[in-house]
Amino acid sequence: MCHPAWGRARAAAQRLSDFARLRRVRDRIDREYARPLNVEALARDANMSAGYLSRQFRLAYGTSPYAYLMTRRIERAAALLRRGDLSVTEVCSEVGCSSLNTFSTRFTELVGISPSACRRGATGTAAGMPPCVAKQATGPVRNREAPVPAPQLAS
After folding, report:
1. DSSP track, the chain
2. How does pLDDT run across 67-89, given as a tens digit for each residue?
């Protein structure tokens, strides 16, 4: 029979291993947000099931992998739209979204204004602000998202 402390040590090691894999998934989303990504492919590459990845990702980061991916895409889209040299359709494609309607709906939900309005207001909204402040002030707000419970790591 195993000593009870061994079971706890093994569970702790598993949590650390899972968290390392979750960080790699999050880093991959940050790096490859414009590529076609889905939870099943991310899970397969992390040697997890899609359901387990989604549950653990939500516990660790307070959001689902898909919502995290869309937030990254919308943040990048907002930056491109503020630049003003690309159309909304070009920005949609540039950030990896295949449907302009879905992109516009999601952008409006997260940012609070339509992509077209963001592009029109590009001049002057963040004028004179350092880029890091402009990103914070004009980034996604999650104003119509369902509230996410506080993350709790399993013990």
Report:
1. ---HHHHHHHHHHHHHHHHHHHHHHHHHHHHHTTS---HHHHHHHTTS-HHHHHHHHHHHHSS-HHHHHHHHHHHHHHHHHHH-SS-HHHHHHHTT-S-HHHHHHHHHHHHSS-HHHHHHTHHHHSTTS-HHHHHHHHS---TTSPPPPPP----
2. 999 999 999 999 999 988 999 99
